[in-house]
Design brief:
With about 210 residues, the chain is α/β, with parallel strands linked by helices. It contains seven helices and ten strands. Helices cover about 40% and strands about 20% of the residues.
């Protein structure tokens, strides 16, 4: 499954690797990878692959799950489609409480003690998805874990997930994707070492030009 998802993401440029001409993140860090999983929604074949993989992962890894909750905004559509496949309730968590109406931060019905799984499209440092987990826990949910489409596998993100005591299962990851990219000619085989060097320490730009 991991390789199939990686191949699909590469085919639709949801994951785009450009080690010779790095992208610049908002933080100013130079990155050889650009990831936009929102493109999955406009590619029916890959969308079906991803959403069915999310549903199967929930059934396998979290068999007691009673509801899916998407992260705002990118996780919402994926949670909704997977919940439909599973015939399961779905909601989502806003990045902040509304300033009007009922001032909800959690949208959709959540019962105290309900066993839920968070659906996230992308995990890098893990900060935003852990905030969602905390909001749900504070509201009384029993958060079984996370299903993410893609994770970088950065140490900071892995450490944060461990500290928050939350399990994450990703459909695919950075290492798998660069292997598939090299096998299918998206990058040169000798680019793999540069990309791993970036993954291990994004603030170290010594990989550029190597």
């Amino acid at each position: 499954m991991n390789k199939e998802v990686s191949k699909g993401l590469l085919e639709i440029n949801a994951v785009f690797l450009r080690p010779e001409e790095p992208f610049t993140w908002a933080s100013g860090i130079k990155s050889p990878i650009y990831c936009d999983n929102r493109l999955i929604l406009t590619a029916p074949k890959v969308r079906d692959l991803v959403e069915n993989a999310i549903a199967e992962t929930v059934k396998k890894e979290y068999p007691d799950c009673q509801a899916l909750f998407g992260t705002s905004t990118a996780g919402i559509a994926h949670a909704a489609i997977a919940a439909s496949i599973l015939n399961m309730p779905m909601g989502y968590v806003r990045s902040g409480a509304k300033d009007h109406g009922r001032q909800n931060q959690i949208e959709g019905r959540l019962e105290k003690g309900q066993k839920v799984v968070v659906v996230e499209d992308l995990i890098s440092t893990g900060g935003s998805v852990i905030e969602v987990v905390d909001v749900l826990r504070d509201a009384g949910a029993d958060v079984l874990g996370i299903v993410s489409i893609f994770t970088y596998g950065m140490k900071k993100g892995l450490d944060r997930l461990k500290e928050a005591n939350v399990k994450n299962i990703s459909l695919t990851d950075f290492d798998t994707t660069i292997e598939v990219a090299a096998e299918n000619g998206y990058i040169r085989p000798d680019d793999k070492a540069k990309l791993i060097k970036f993954r291990n320490n994004p603030s170290d730009e010594s990989w550029i030009g190597e």
